[in-house]
């Protein structure tokens, strides 16, 4: 397109950086106060700008944003309960030896290598009167709830090998059902609105609900386990003692009750998204996904440099977080001797993450998404290094745990808000959209990180001589747990930072892409042809 670059540059010039600052600030206040105040201010022109063009379509309502955001809770609640509790449940309640637990945890995540991309492809082929995404969310929910409940059930009179098969099957079924829920849910972000600012605002609501889901899920599960499961202290007074059958039965009951509560949240949130969110069909900017084969789509997506770099950075950051999360309960119990404080430490960790989100939002506005994510990720390094030497003193452990929450906060807020920027950048370059594939692999790498970290962790514990059902473990096990929550995550974080350093989408490039796409959409609407935007994008200049 001759002259296309000059035309886009002239458009970009009318979108100077300063007018975006009030919009970015509004993004955070919407996040905290559910948009009511700022919708009033916007209606009265407080945040208007004379140079900004009116975008087509109405802004998303507060109700739509809240209904959409609630859909993020089931994934975070169930996955974080699994992340914090599955290792200690399999080893000390179900009493499966670490080698078998490693097969269950890693095998379930490896299954995601098939289910996540496959679901993404099937979603792109779906077209119903309810949309292509929402039917997957509502109809997969009952299967997810059932398999999650039985994942925490301890079958009686099963051999260890039979229990291995049971938990492997339930874990795989749950991960498949969760993929059918979460892949279309995350892709729904693009279908909420054609306005990137509205999508960012909806993403902020979602991030708040997801962090709230993490806090609620872990707190509810922890308090149920502590309250109903009771204490094993009377069983563990003598060296070499094991937990009594009565205490194990109480723990089994506690985990099942917790699973039932999580399942109730899961169903309510799925129904809220289905009935409360409208899936728009006029925001798709590129060619239909059905026209390209799955493997052609994969080739296009993984040749897109910004997506590869962001995904790899997110993968290694997730590996670091999952390594700490998966071993935190055992670390508190066998390295620090603070097993009775585990539930409260989780609340301190996640509470700090929520409270620090305004700080990272301020950094996002002032320095941009990439810089804010870099700073937040770097906070983990001194925190994790301290875990190598910290004594089992609550007054020392709680401040370090709270500092860890500062870093986790940015990991919740930013990576998912950066992915729509990558999708828009891809659309501008290729004239096609591959949201389902982009999001499905992004979800997969998060789960894959958990499987790798948990699988390697349980194998390390078996090599260190972990004894299933024992009240106390050897010093070698305690030292191994310290290694799993400090040096290994630090290495993962450094690798994550290297990939993030090379991530090319800056704030200036993001604004350029937004302006160029809006211009192409306006031209397509002016021509009144469904495929006009695709043809107009094919010749656009690479950003």
TrEMBL record:
The chain crosses the membrane at residues 27-47, 136-154, 166-192, 204-224, 254-277, 307-325, 345-365, 372-390, 396-416, 437-459, 479-501. Keywords: Membrane, Transmembrane, Transmembrane helix. InterPro entries: MFS_2, MFS_trans_sf. It comes from the Eukaryota. The keyword Transmembrane helix applies. Residues 516-525 have a biased composition (Basic and acidic residues). Coiled coil: none annotated. One of its GO terms (molecular function) is symporter activity. Residues 516-543 are annotated as: Disordered. GO terms for cellular component: plasma membrane. It holds the Pfam family MFS_2. One of its GO terms (biological process) is carbohydrate transport. Belongs to the major facilitator superfamily. This is MFSD2A protein. The gene is MFSD2A.
């Amino acid at each position: 397109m001759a002259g296309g670059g000059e035309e886009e540059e002239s458009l970009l010039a009318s979108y100077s950086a300063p007018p975006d600052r009030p919009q970015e600030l509004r993004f955070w206040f919407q996040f905290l106060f559910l948009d009511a105040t700022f919708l009033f201010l916007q209606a009265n022109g407080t945040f208007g700008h004379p140079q900004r063009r009116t975008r087509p379509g109405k802004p998303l309502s507060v109700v739509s944003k809240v209904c959409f955001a609630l859909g993020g809770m089931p994934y975070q609640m169930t996955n974080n309960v699994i992340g914090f509790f599955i290792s200690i449940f399999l080893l000390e309640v179900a009493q499966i030896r670490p080698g078998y637990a490693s097969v269950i945890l890693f095998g379930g995540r490896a299954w995601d290598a098939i289910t996540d991309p496959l679901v993404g492809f099937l979603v792109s082929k779906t077209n119903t009167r309810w949309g292509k995404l929402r039917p997957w969310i509502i109809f997969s929910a009952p299967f997810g709830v059932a398999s999650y409940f039985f994942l925490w059930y301890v079958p009686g009179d099963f051999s260890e090998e039979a229990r291995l098969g049971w938990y492997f099957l339930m874990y795989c079924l749950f991960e498949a059902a969760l993929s059918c829920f979460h892949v279309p849910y995350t892709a729904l972000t693009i279908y909420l609105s054609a306005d990137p600012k509205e999508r960012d605002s909806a993403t902020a609501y979602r991030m708040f609900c997801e962090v709230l889901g993490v806090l609620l899920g872990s707190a509810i599960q922890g308090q149920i386990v502590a309250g109903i499961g009771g204490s094993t202290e009377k069983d563990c007074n003598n060296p070499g003692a094991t937990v009594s059958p009565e205490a194990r039965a109480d723990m089994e009951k506690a985990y099942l009750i917790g699973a039932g509560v999580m399942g109730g949240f899961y169903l309510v949130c799925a129904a809220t998204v289905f009935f409360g969110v409208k899936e728009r069909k006029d925001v798709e900017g590129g060619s239909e996904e059905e026209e390209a084969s799955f493997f052609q789509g994969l080739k296009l997506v993984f040749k897109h440099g910004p997506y590869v770099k962001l995904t790899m950075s997110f993968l290694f950051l997730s590996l670091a977080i999952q390594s700490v999360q998966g071993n935190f309960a055992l670390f508190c119990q066998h390295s620090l001797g603070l097993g009775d404080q585990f539930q409260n430490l989780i609340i301190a960790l996640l509470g700090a993450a929520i409270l620090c989100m305004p700080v990272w939002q301020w950094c996002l506005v002032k320095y941009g998404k990439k810089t804010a994510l870099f700073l937040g990720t770097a906070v983990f390094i001194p925190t994790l290094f301290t875990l190598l030497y910290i004594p089992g003193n609550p007054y020392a452990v709680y401040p370090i745990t709270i500092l860890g929450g500062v870093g986790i906060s940015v990991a919740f807020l930013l990576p998912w808000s950066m992915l729509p920027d990558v999708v828009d950048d891809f659309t501008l370059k290729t004239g096609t959209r591959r949201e389902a594939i982009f999001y499905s692999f992004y979800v997969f790498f998060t789960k894959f990180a958990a499987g790798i970290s948990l699988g390697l962790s349980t194998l390390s514990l078996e090599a260190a001589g972990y004894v299933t059902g024992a009240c106390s473990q050897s010093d070698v096990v305690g030292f191994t747990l310290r290694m799993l929550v400090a040096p290994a995550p630090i290495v993962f974080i450094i690798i994550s930072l290297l990939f993030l350093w090379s991530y090319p989408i800056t704030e200036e490039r993001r604004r350029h892409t937004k302006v160029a796409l809006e211009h192409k959409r306006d031209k397509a609407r002016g021509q009144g042809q469904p495929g006009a935007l695709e043809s107009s994008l094919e010749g656009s200049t690479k950003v």
